[in-house]
Design a protein that fits this description.
Growth Hormone, Chain: A; 234 residues; mainly alpha
Length: 234
Amino acid sequence: MRVRPGVAADHANYKWWTLSCTSLGMLLATINSGTLIIALPDLERSLHTTLLGLVWVILAYMISSTVLVLTAGRLSDLFGRKRAYLGGFVVFGLASLGAGFSASGTELILWRILQGIGGAFLFANSAALVTDAFPREQLGLALGTNTMVAAVGLVIGPILGGALVSISWHWVFWFNIPLAIIGTVWGALVLHELATRDEVRGLDLPGTSVFVIGLTGLVLGISRGESPDGTTRS
């Protein structure tokens, strides 16, 4: 008697179960950016933040999810890709809950950084799980499907954002929570740990720190590259 959805790891259809879960992760990690753009005017009024603060609400997620992808991938090698992927859903969902309760622009930026950390684990392990599950001759199809779902998330995000903002800007973030819960439960039920853990190599924390500080400093310098009178500095 089957007690859980999905199939065994060596079953021919396991790859499609895996793709369904990784596609949900990619959708969650990308749709949030589009919905948030529509909510920016409401955020400015409700949180009394500046234009630069709104810019960093967007950039905080982009930077953290970009610079931490390599670290997230390395942690998945140490602790398991399934565990790291599910952790991405959990972190993203908790950060979305906190972001919806933000009382200031600074608080929201901090929650967006945490969202980016969750997104990094989803981005890094989505491709890894698909690579483990699919044979080489179908790998391009699987990775292309993940990319297509991510693109769909970017396209429908603004449309969905308009509907959510009509209720309240808080729902732009809270909408992510059901998707995160579904992704966590679905992944726990259907995914198998196929990769062998690599505990020989260490985690390059100094390199990651330099990358984070360098990229953040560069973006901060560019974003503040205007003088108080509004003219661009030469």
